[in-house]
From TrEMBL:
<feature type="transmembrane region" description="Helical">
    <location>
        <begin position="220"/>
        <end position="240"/>
    </location>
</feature>
<protein>
    <recommendedName>
        <fullName>Major facilitator superfamily (MFS) profile domain-containing protein</fullName>
    </recommendedName>
</protein>
<feature type="transmembrane region" description="Helical">
    <location>
        <begin position="418"/>
        <end position="438"/>
    </location>
</feature>
<feature type="region of interest" description="Disordered">
    <location>
        <begin position="1"/>
        <end position="29"/>
    </location>
</feature>
<feature type="transmembrane region" description="Helical">
    <location>
        <begin position="154"/>
        <end position="174"/>
    </location>
</feature>
<dbReference type="InterPro" id="IPR036259">
    <property type="entry name" value="MFS_trans_sf"/>
</dbReference>
<feature type="transmembrane region" description="Helical">
    <location>
        <begin position="115"/>
        <end position="134"/>
    </location>
</feature>
<feature type="compositionally biased region" description="Basic and acidic residues">
    <location>
        <begin position="1"/>
        <end position="10"/>
    </location>
</feature>
<dbReference type="GO" id="GO:0022857">
    <property type="term" value="F:transmembrane transporter activity"/>
</dbReference>
<feature type="transmembrane region" description="Helical">
    <location>
        <begin position="195"/>
        <end position="214"/>
    </location>
</feature>
<keyword id="KW-1133">Transmembrane helix</keyword>
<dbReference type="InterPro" id="IPR000109">
    <property type="entry name" value="POT_fam"/>
</dbReference>
<comment type="similarity">
    <text>Belongs to the major facilitator superfamily. Proton-dependent oligopeptide transporter (POT/PTR) (TC 2.A.17) family.</text>
</comment>
<feature type="transmembrane region" description="Helical">
    <location>
        <begin position="458"/>
        <end position="479"/>
    </location>
</feature>
<feature type="transmembrane region" description="Helical">
    <location>
        <begin position="491"/>
        <end position="514"/>
    </location>
</feature>
<keyword id="KW-0812">Transmembrane</keyword>
<dbReference type="Pfam" id="PF00854">
    <property type="entry name" value="PTR2"/>
</dbReference>
Length: 569
């Protein structure tokens, strides 16, 4: 009877249902597996523990990552090169494992179970890190094992494995708490994305200020122990609200379904696709063949893959062979993912803006960091400007910024996900241009033998990166959820996140190539020498600003031709 009522409420236009409906219209269920009640599950009462858990997790992650180089070099005695290599490998693994976490969530475990397992794995890694800080270092280097190094290495890779399930699933699971077939709940979901990013950066702010101070002044045992405690609190809080959550059922392997469409389409390469899309194969009734997913309407374009859903004489006798005949919904999954991919790829260049922070710090090291007569501002501390900017803008985005934009554009929502990403890219261009302008002014002051430029001139570039992230990063998170198929949302979120890794690799490759080309092999440091007064870091920043501008143009072209997902049925 409950399932019949739920189907009745899903019969409205485009799947929408009145607010007074007893069950959600997006196929979500409660903790017992029954259709989720609109009154007793989901919405903000379920999101408080999700956001709190994300704050605790972000605090723990940044408490490790922000000051990890100091721990590896000062406590474990690693060289700068070895420490930098280990940190780069760890950070790369943190993003690469998101594909594994997303695959498990969408295919087999579901997002909630994946988050629980990942949080537990991450917390166990934090415990190992804490133990490595309190275990005395092995002084006999001739021994085959080094307990402290073994514990820290295992702990780091356990945290990376845990983050692989946390990062793509937490924002998606939070958005699942709002029924997108209900107009009022859909509007609340747009607020969630901003508060999610606020929680992430709130954790970063506390970690980069309070926890880093504890690590430097009170010891690493306490410095790792406090974030470990927060991680435990996050797990307990997340589990305590299970009865309030709305759950989406895993739909099986999305990669398998994509391969089935490709194989079936190539097997029918000589078959003509009917002009009437109603003749394509689809499951009868309102239920989708994919568990946890609503049906998708057929769209024009990428018609080659429609062959996979084209019924032939041999298919009528074997309609249950998915490698030969696929449903329209399955074909549309592949089409949607193919259309989203170019948008995701523009995130590679966009993420190089934040990847330039080490260069910002080096630039600040060549400037006058004395703010007052007796106070010297560490160059790395200026990243706080980015964090504070995000903490201010994220919660005021929907309450202040978007109403103002709505009045200017006449559009109720203000900015779509694609508009939001585009605005973020504009600010990324401005951030790199500001960094280049500051460096040009600094070099001129050096040539004129004038007083050193104040480090506070860097504040605008950090603030502009913060604005770029509020618009761009949150825009990508929202785009990955709103435009993805129901059974591929975690995977699409992982695709958005993983673009950070090739962005970092690209910047590293560019630095290596430019150093080689501009150095000339004659002992010159090129654009970025050890002594920045003898180089041209400004030219590199201008180059990166130009690259961001080209990326913005490419994004506009992709966005202009992007075909949005049609309402589900």
């Amino acid at each position: 009877m409950a399932n019949e009522e739920q189907r009745q409420w899903m019969d409205g236009e485009f799947g929408c249902q009145p607010e007074e409906g007893p069950y959600t219209g997006n196929g979500s269920v409660d903790v017992k597996g029954n259709p989720a009640s609109k009154t007793h599950t989901g919405k903000w009462k379920a999101c408080y523990s999700i956001l709190g858990g994300e704050f605790c997790g972000a605090l723990a992650y940044y408490a490790v990552g922000t000051n990890l180089v100091s721990y590896l070099t000062k406590v474990q005695g690693q060289s700068n090169v070895t420490a930098a290599s280990n940190i780069a490998a760890w950070q790369g693994n943190c993003y690469l494992t998101t594909i594994l976490g997303a695959f498990l969530a969408d295919s087999y475990w579901g997002r909630h179970r994946t988050i629980v397992v990942s949080l537990t794995t991450f917390t166990f890694g934090m415990v190992l890190l804490t133990l490595s800080a309190v275990v005395p270092p092995n002084m006999h280097r001739s021994m085959a094992t080094f307990p402290q190094e073994a514990l820290s290495s295992l702990g780091l890779y356990m945290t990376a494995l845990g983050l692989g399930g946390i990062w793509p699933c937490v924002p998606t699971f939070g958005a699942d708490q709002f029924d997108d077939t209900d107009v009022s709940e859909k509007a609340q979901k747009e607020l969630f994305y901003n508060w999610y990013y606020f929680a992430v950066n709130g954790g970063f702010f506390v970690a980069s200020t309070v926890i880093v101070w504890v690590q430097d002044n009170c010891g690493w045992g306490l410095g790792f122990g406090i974030p470990t405690l927060f991680s435990v609190i996050g797990v307990v809080g997340f589990l305590a609200s299970m009865r309030f959550y709305r759950y989406q059922k895993p739909g099986g392997s999305a990669l398998t379904r994509i391969c089935q469409v490709v194989v079936a389409a190539f097997r029918k390469v000589h078959v003509d696709v009917p002009s009437d899309s109603s003749l394509l194969y689809e499951m009868p009734g309102k239920e989708s063949a994919i568990v946890g997913s609503r049906k998708l309407m057929h769209t024009d374009g990428l018609r080659f893959f429609d062959r996979a859903a084209t019924i032939t004489a041999s298919d009528e006798a074997s309609a249950s062979r998915p490698w030969k005949l696929c449903t329209v919904t399955q074909v549309e999954e592949l089409k949607i993912f193919a259309r989203m991919l170019p948008i995701f790829l523009t995130g590679v260049i966009f993420n190089t803006a934040e990847a330039c922070f080490p260069l910002f710090v080096e630039q600040g090291g060549a400037m006058d960091n004395h703010v007052a007569a007796a106070f010297a501002l560490p160059p790395a501390s200026l990243t706080t400007f980015t964090c504070v900017c995000i903490l201010v803008l994220a919660p005021t985005y929907d309450g202040v910024l978007m109403p103002a934009v709505s009045r200017l554009t006449g559009v109720k929502r203000g900015l779509s996900e694609l508009h939001r990403i585009g605005v973020g890219m504009v600010f990324a261009v401005l951030a790199l241009a500001a960094a280049a302008a500051v460096e040009t002014a600094r070099l001129r002051s050096v040539e004129a033998d004038a007083p050193a430029v104040s480090i506070l001139w860097q504040a605008p570039q950090y603030v502009l990166v913060g604005v770029a992230k509020v618009f761009g990063v949150v825009g990508y998170i929202e785009f990955a959820y709103e435009q993805s198929p129901d059974a591929m949302r975690s995977l699409c979120q992982a695709c958005s996140l993983i673009m950070v890794t090739p962005g970092s690799y690209l910047l590293s490759a560019m630095l290596t190539i430019i150093s080689s080309v501009t150095g000339g092999g004659g002992g010159h440091g090129g654009w970025i020498p050890e002594n920045l007064n003898e180089g041209h870091l400004d030219r590199f920043f201008w180059l990166m600003a130009a690259l961001q501008l080209i990326n913005l143009i490419a994004f506009v072209c992709c966005a202009a031709t992007y075909k949005r997902k049609l309402p589900t049925t």
